[in-house]
Amino acid sequence: xxxxxxxxxxxxxxxxxxxxxxxxxxxxxxxxxxxxxxxxxxxxxxxxxxxxxxxxxxxxxxxxxxxxxxxxxxxxxxxxxxxxxxxxxxxxxxxxxxxxxxxxxxxxxxxxxxxxxxxxxxxxxxxxxxxxxxxxxxxxxxxxxxxxxxxxxxxxxxxxxxxxxxxxxxxxxxxxxxxxxxxxxxxxxxxxxxxxxxxxxxxxxxxxxxxxxxxxxxxxxxxxxxxxxxxxxxxxxxxxxxxxxxxxxxxxxxxxxxxxxxxxxxxxxxxxxxxxxxxxxxxxxxxxxxxxxxxxxxxxxxxxxxxxxxxxxxxxxxxxxxxxxxxxxxxxxxxxxxxxx
Amino acid sequence: xxxxxxxxxxxxxxxxxxxxxxxxxxxxxxxxxxxxxxxxxxxxxxxxxxxxxxxxxxxxxxxxxxxxxxxxxxxxxxxxxxxxxxxxxxxxxxxxxxxxxxxxxxxxxxxxxxxxxxxxxxxxxxxxxxxxxxxxxxxxxxxxxxxxxxxxxxxxxxxxxxxxxxxxxxxxxxxxxxxxxxxxxxxxxxxxxxxxxxxxxxxxxxxxxxxxxxxxxxxxxxxxxxxxxxxxxxxxxxxxxxxxxxxxxxxxxxxxxxxxxxxxxxxxxxxxxxxxxxxxxxxxxxxxxxxxxxxxxxxxxxxxxxxxxxxxxxxxxxxxxxxxxxxxxxxxxxxxxxxxxxxxxxxxxxxxxxxxxxxxxxxxxxxxxxxxxxxxxxxxxxxxxxxxxxxxxxxxxxxxxxxxxxxxxxxxxxxxxxxxxxxxxxxxxxxxxxxxxxxxxxxxxxxxxxxxxxxxxxxxxxxxxxxxxxxxxxxxxxxxxxxxxxxxxxxxxxxxxxxxxxxxxxxxxxxxxxxxxxxxxxxxxxxxxxxxxxxxxxxxxxxxxxxxxxxxxxxxxxxxxxxxxxxxxxxxxxxxxxxxxxxxxxxxxxxxxxxxxxxxxxxxxxxxxxxxxxxxxx
Lengths: 341, 618
Fold this sequence. Notes:
The complex is a heterodimer of chains A (341) and B (618). Chain A is an alpha+beta fold. Chain A has helices at residues 16-32, 38-51, 66-89, 91-118, 133-149, 155-168, 184-215, 222-253, 268-284, 290-303, 326-331; strands at residues 8-12, 53-55, 58-62, 120-122, 125-129, 170-172, 175-179, 255-257, 260-264, 305-308. Chain A has a ten-stranded antiparallel β-barrel, surrounded by five helices. In chain A, α6 crosses α7 (184-215) and α7 packs antiparallel against α8. Chain B has four domains: 4-95, PH-domain like (Roll); 132-334, no CATH class; 358-487, TolA/TonB C-terminal domain (2-Layer Sandwich); 500-602, TonB (TolA/TonB C-terminal domain, 2-Layer Sandwich). With 618 residues, chain B is an alpha+beta fold. A seven-stranded antiparallel beta sheet of chain B has the order 4-3-2-1-7-6-5, with helices on one face. In chain B, strands 20, 22, 23, 25, 26, 27 and 28 form a seven-stranded antiparallel beta sheet that branches. Chain B is 35% helix and 24% strand. The termini of chain B are far apart. Classes of the chains: A alpha+beta (341), B alpha+beta (618). At the A-B interface, α1, α2, β3, α3 and α8 of A face α2, α3, α4, α8 and α9 of B.
């Protein structure tokens, strides 16, 4: 029987009003500078979220150099514009560009994870991501093939393996992250959300079908498709956040930092309720309440997470150093880990 | 000034943290309360920029850091350093509620202005700056994308030629720098439509051509689509689409996770707004064009109304092809007075059609025996007899202006009794020509016969437009009995005649390769017969055979633009019948092979009468 260990909560000190002021000023500056300021804006926003996350009396820090992100942004913007212009005229080029992009994906993922980790600090210690392109290609492309071959059946296991790859290659000083979870819980989570979406498709289809039968139309008009889109969209949103809550718990509860553990107890119902409120507020305010939603989400998510060290964390020491490049930081932003790390 | 404050210190080697007292003295930062004490030059200390209530980090050399909440002390420390003023300015802005409120108003204003004014202006400029070649490729890929909604046209060459000629009447007064061309497609019996694609392509559906009851309505449709093409609406909407996406992703770059679904809805609404605006611009353009072509805008309104009625229920909202919004509004704009030619204006006793004289001649004589002279045939052959002759429309604005006159048309009646390639021989009022040609194209005959065989023939008919109070709008009578073979003046010219100088080509522009055929890699050939008249112009082009219907209209169109030196017999200019194979060849582009086959010279010079000269068997 393991003895009861002391747990330390993650605390979030962010204030919605304060973050709104930061967000609106930075967004406006981004717009007025035609996007050039976006790199500085991103660093400031991210630093606000990390800097307000407290663990055991200390805050996290984000130290990325905006100028490097700016370079990455410019490269991505150039590629995107070229892709749009050329692709509009020669659709074949578009396919080719997508193929090249797909092949570059593992590299982008690894570089952005490394950049993100390198610039995140706790108590003066930088996080570090071990860059293994071969493993990344195997995880992201090789297993994608398996997903395609199995008609998507392998997808939940693929997601699990991605987490294993990203988490397992992180370390803080000389303490290594490990991720050890079976695929089963991933399958059950995806099964439930899949069933929700499937049910929404049927329900929405029936609603539109009834309307078609009443109006005796053969082709559905836009207004007749509205109930379908509403049902489908809202259930899709619910399923997405149900999945997030389930995976949040599953991932953190099976993540170790050497012997130290994490305890996540996110309540899926409360999380969904919170996100529905966010969605309503964002739509009603035309996106202006987005920062409020971010603070609310971060605050709740972090309040569900606790750290459970198995010995004093002061024993964690330094081990080498490394650098990251800004290019991949931007390109791979959507893959970044948003909470805690 | 000696600032003293507290913080927690980490040495960068382990995660151990210790409380520390900080003191600034003579340009150095002293860290007390730890063993061993640390002191560093202020020049080596970097501080994190202020950001809300986030604690401040002091970055010392060798990965050492100090974390402190004492912003005031750090601010004093920063003052001594030469730092960039920008982060402090941003923090100053971020701290103030009034700035945030102003920024909110400004942001909403800027985004609204960009979306509603900036983007359209940019898109318009960009659309006109797109090189012609790129635009043509864009049109081609658009046509290819449409392919699954469209089927090959079932229209015959006469209908196609009519549309092409009407387009010329619409386009020519505009003096456009580039070529506009029509593509014929069928929508598979669904509702009629026409749309313009980038690169000056106007796609007409068979159903729309059939829906138009007269040339004016067809011209109105063509003028409207010409407006879309010339104002670059296709390109503009594409550009607006991607530009809107760009702006939205810049402004709400990190919004993707939460509202990627919701963010597309306003864009869709935006697009619908754009189409309405474009429709109005194209309508205005069409009104100018129709004015230049002297067509009553009422026809534009009437065809719009027909289009609206012919749409299936509920299809007007959710169909990719029907981009035309609120027809009632548009009709109100086009024709504010509501003076629609919905029914023909009734004036007592107006008379339209009196085919007074018709003259007949044989065109392609089946000469089986040498002994058959032209005179024989002319005497023995029975003339074509009219079966159905719907009268031409009398355009109401001409009735209103009391314009009367005669139009003589020449046309072929083929062995099946259908009218082929009607052309105007003589007219007193150019405005009356189009209705007559349109009507004649629908006439039906029982074909001319020669020894029990149906043969083609040529007919001249004169149609009189008059506003005669006494005459009733009677059923038109075709004066077949007026045709007396004896009235034909036939001259025989032997092709081998030394005094005969055949016509020579002066200008032979090649046909336009239909995009969908080149896209599918399809090649083919079209054989066309025509007459080179005394002025060297091409008249009466007639299709003999073709490998593919799609090639017919371009071939006819091209040949109509050809120019020759006229043929001569003993110093006198004569008309000559010719046939030409037009090859559509992908590798060498479309070309006109040099094998122009000239057959018999015919003489059209005598008092409008036609003389035919039979070819000799080689």
